[in-house]
Every structure is written in structure tokens, then in C-alpha cells.
Amino acid sequence: MESFPLIDNRPEGEWSVTVLLTGSEEISHLHGRFFGDASDTDVMSFPSGDDPHDDGGYLGDIAISLDVATAQAQLERHSLGRELSYLALHGLLHLLGYRDEDEMERAAMLEFQDALFAAWKHKMAGLD
To answer: What pLDDT does 127 receive?
Structure first.
């Protein structure tokens, strides 16, 4: 598994993000405007440029398509809430500098994301 530097060096201080829940039309517009691809997508991230190694700040924006999230939740047979949480985590990882631009990066990022999500679910269930 690829090393992820922010595991041992997590951001300190107070950080904020903005999350936009929108539909397919708006997410396609944003995808086209900022990434040159007007196709529908599930989640996009827009880093603020603040350094995650600073002591707080604004990480950026996450846009999630409710339409795509709903379809993915139905396909995977889990709740919309679970899908939105998973997509928000994916967006947050991008804001922290994680990338998935090729298959190797994507596989490593998704493996890490799955481990974080499982740990979060374990903690929320009060099992630790």
C-alpha cells in the first residue's frame, strides 16, 4: 500500500470545508467549467490553497451530486446517508492532497478511504 503522508502528520488547528449537495445538472455544469468534462459525476473537490500543515484555515469546497449518490446507493444496496458520507470523505481526502489520477493512485486512495470509513463506522458504533 502506498504511503499517505498526512496519516502521521494530520492537520492541526481549526479547519473548515463547504459541502454543496446538488443535482446532476449543476454538477455537470461545474464538472465542465472546472475540469473540461461536462459529464455527470458523483463528487468534486476544490482546494482553497491553504496549506494543510498550517494551524487551521479553510480547506476548500466539496460538491456532491444527490442524483448520482442516490443511484450509487441503490446499486450498492446501502443507505443514501452512507453514500453521502463516503463521497464526502473522498472529497475531503482530495482537499488534503490525495490524488486518484491513474489506476494505481486510485486503487491506493480507495483502499485508504475504505480503511478510514471502516474505522469511522466502528467508532460511531461505539465498538472502540
So the answer is: 62
Q: Which three cell numbers stand for residue 9?
A: 502528520
Inter-residue long-range contacts of 80-83, CB under 8 Å, 24+ positions, other chains counted: none
Q: Is this prediction's pTM over 0.90?
A: no
CA 21 to chain centre: 13
pLDDT tens readout for residues 80-108: 999 999 999 999 999 988 888 899 999 99
Helix axes 24-35, 66-76, angle to 10 degrees: 110
Domain that holds residue 82: 12-97
Point out which residues pair with 12 in neighbouring strands: 55
Number of domains in the chain: 1
Q: In the prediction, which pLDDT does 91 show?
A: 95
- Do 111 and 127 meet the contact criterion of CB atoms below 8 Å apart? no
Has residue 66 been placed in a domain?
yes
